[in-house]
Design a protein that fits this description.
Among the domains are: about 20-130, Topoisomerase II, domain 5; about 195-280, Gyrase A, domain 2 (2-Layer Sandwich), CATH 3.30.1360.40; about 305-435, Topoisomerase, domain 3 (Orthogonal Bundle), CATH 1.10.268; about 460-520, no CATH class. The chain is of the alpha+beta class. It is elongated, with a radius of gyration of 40 Å. The protein contains 17 helices and 36 strands. Helix 3 (about 40-45) crosses helix 4 (about 55-65) and helix 7 crosses helix 10 (about 295-340). The chain is about 30% helix and about 25% strand.
């Protein structure tokens, strides 16, 4: 059963790029083709002679072929894969083979045939397609134990890549989707397992309150995109006022933003939380040598190009043979008439066909060197079947002209066979010139910056904490307010015992009694600097330190002191731009102390890691620490670049350098 489903139902063949049902539909259309449209219901009925399954499966497969607008000319309502609208019933729609299909897909002389499932009819094993059809249309199928997902590629680019392959270059093709949009193919992996494509809708900013989606990602519909946007709005991930679907011939989804909402942030949020960005995992599997094989799309293109070249060679050899046969018989007839063999007494008096054959063999003996092969009895039968009227009206001059034209044709064919690669390139170029118009790339190739969901999520919940009991969460509405945040955020909590913990926003979480400070945590934030003084529990010595918290494991406690039991935090501030204040430290009276009060400037303390011990403040007990004056940032300005490709500001050195900016600066 697995073998049957893989070979005869779900996986396309590498040579013609078709599954069995698609191949049978194409063969049936060819069988019925008279240049006029046929009802789809009639085509389905005729296909059932070859396909041992229901009419619904044939009808669905036929609609899918028609919607790709390459092999079938359609008439009537064939549905719309962009909006998800289904086609009308088969009795209301009509189809015929396209000019492209007639030229590229069929040739009975080079087709290998087999009996249909009931033995009544003949059907092709594969069609002699002289084009990389599988890569143009794409394919998707689920078999038993394996699946296939081949991406569609651009018609013109495939032809150019095939020509490059014939010239000895390795192609490097990338998908192109009929829905347009933008795509990042940096992890495409040549279409093999493990690869990934990120596809985005094309969203433009009409004005500060309106966004318009003009192209949607492949594998989505306008309906599914709108549903995902409404779902994100209901969850508070984005905030929109209204959404309208104005799609007709072209996609147009208009999004009205709520007052005070940034269009740029909303665009990023649409990519993060809705179907405006989808991830597609290709898995290119084809039937080759009667078994499924996982191949890269570039290797498939090379195989298709070799197959096309072999088919073109077969066609040329068949044509050469036909031309040689025409010259052979014309020469035979000319000698037969010119030499008056039909008047020969032995020929005229022959009583049966065997005698006629013997006589003609003797008469043609001296002319054998004018023929490219031996003369057979079948040739003589064809000769003597000629009516006498055509023999008496035989025009030698006209026959010579025809033979000269045939010889010229043979020279051309032999030249093509000698220069087969150039002939194949000319074939591809002809297809490009004839059918390439209007098939330019629709999907824009881009490199996407990763949109971190937590960074673009709207602050849709409020965070509270109970310092004494050690609880923090969005459900503690009667307790102390911390900040507005998103339900995707993480929070960092510092406790009086000198420990910190990072946890995800939840309804209510126990983080330890005695909360000193809590805030929304930004991963890899090296500009938020924490200033701290703590007392070591073992020695009683107090230490001062400055540190940043960059990367940590969630829900793991980190000790910011020396780790001694009884250690305690004496002073703590969080500074978003590395500010360093001046504080006054008051010590408890002691007989050895002459000075009970002194100032400390945090600017003199080096910023180190969170695990650093810190510098000694005093070995004597601290009575009180008070803020003397607020500090200014001790960090250098933030260097900002603008990436024109991604259209984003960044601090990673990508794109155009804009300059160094301080905390209060704004970039227009």
């Amino acid at each position: 059963y697995a073998s049957y489903v893989i070979l005869d139902r779900a996986v396309p063949h590498i040579n013609d790029g078709l599954k069995p049902v698609q191949r049978r539909i194409m063969h049936s259309l060819r069988e019925m083709d008279d240049g006029r449209f046929n009802k789809a219901a009639n085509v389905i009925g005729n296909t059932m002679k070859y396909h041992p399954h229901g009419d619904a499966s044939i009808g669905d497969a036929m609609v899918q072929i028609g919607q790709k607008e390459l092999l079938i000319d359609c008439q009537g309502n064939w549905g719309d894969p962009v909006t998800g609208d289904s086609a009308a019933a088969p009795r209301y729609i009509e189809a015929r083979l396209s000019k492209f299909a007639n030229e590229v897909v069929f040739n009975p002389d080079t087709t290998v045939w087999q009996l249909s499932y009931d033995g009544r009819n003949k059907e092709p094993i594969t069609l002699p397609v002289k084009f990389p059809l599988l890569l143009t249309q794409g394919a998707e199928g689920i078999a038993v134990g394996l699946a296939t997902k081949v991406m569609p590629h651009n018609f013109i680019e495939l032809i150019d890549a095939s020509i490059a392959s014939l010239n000895g270059e390795r192609p490097n093709i990338l998908p192109d989707f009929f829905t347009g949009g933008m795509a990042d193919f940096s992890a495409y992996n040549e279409g093999m397992r493990g690869g990934r494509i990120r596809v985005r809708a094309k969203i433009t900013e009409k004005d500060k309150k309106t966004l318009v989606i003009t192209e949607i990602p492949f594998s989505t519909t306008t309906g599914s995109v709108i549903d995902s946007i409404l779902a994100a709005n209901d969850k508070g991930k984005i905030r929109i006022k209204k959404i309208e679907d104005n799609t007709a011939q072209h996609v147009e989804i208009v999004i009205q933003l709520a007052p005070g909402i940034s269009p740029d942030v909303t665009i990023d949020a649409l990519y993060a939380f809705t179907s405006c960005e989808v991830s597609i995992s290709p898995n290119t599997c084809v039937i080759k040598d009667d078994k499924p094989q996982f191949m890269s799309v570039n290797d498939i293109l090379i195989e298709n190009t070799k197959f096309t070249k072999a088919l073109l060679k077969s066609e040329l050899e068949i044509k050469l043979h036909e031309l040689q046969e025409k010259i052979f018989f014309s020469t035979l007839l000319k000698i037969f008439i010119q030499e008056g063999m039909y008047k020969n007494p032995e020929y005229e008096n022959s009583g049966n066909f065997e005698t006629v054959t013997e006589v003609l063999h003797l008469l043609f003996e001296q002319f054998k060197d004018q023929f490219y092969r031996e003369i057979t009895s079948e040739d003589f039968k064809r000769l003597i079947d000629k009516p006498m009227s055509s023999i008496t009206r035989f025009d030698v001059k006209k026959a010579d002209e025809q033979m000269k034209a045939l010889l010229d044709e043979i020279k051309v064919v032999k030249n093509h066979l000698r220069n087969l690669t150039a002939y194949a390139i000319a074939w591809y170029q002809k297809l490009k010139d004839k059918y390439g118009k209007g098939r330019e790339r629709k999907t824009e190739i881009r490199f996407f910056d990763r949109v971190e969901a937590a960074k673009v999520a709207l602050a849709n919940v409020k965070l509270y904490m109970n310092r004494e009991d050690g609880f923090i969460g969005t459900g503690l509405r009667k307790d102390e307010f911390v900040a507005d945040c998103s339900d995707l955020d993480e929070i960092i909590v510092f406790r009086e015992d000198g420990k910190c913990i990072i946890t995800k926003v939840a309804d209510k979480t126990f983080v330890g009694k005695g909360i000193e400070h809590a805030q929304v945590f930004k991963k890899n934030d090296d500009r938020t600097i924490y200033n701290m003084i703590y007392k070591d529990g073992q020695s009683g010595t107090s230490y001062i330190k400055r540190f940043a918290v960059i990367g940590v494991t969630r829900d793991k406690e980190y000790d910011l002191t020396k780790g001694s039991k009884g250690s305690k935090m004496l002073y703590f501030t969080a500074n978003p731009n590395g500010e360093a204040e001046i504080i006054t430290v008051q010590l408890k009276p002691h007989s050895k102390l002459k000075k009970l009060q002194f100032d400390l400037d945090f600017t003199e303390v080096t910023i180190k890691g969170r695990a650093s011990q810190g510098n000694i403040v005093s070995k004597y007990p601290v009575k009180k620490i008070v803020l003397k004056s607020k500090g200014i940032s001790t960090l250098s300005g933030l260097k900002i670049w603008y990436d024109e490709l991604l259209k984003r500001l960044n601090v990673d050195g990508r794109g155009k350098y804009l300059g160094e900016f301080d905390g209060d600066d704004k970039i227009l």
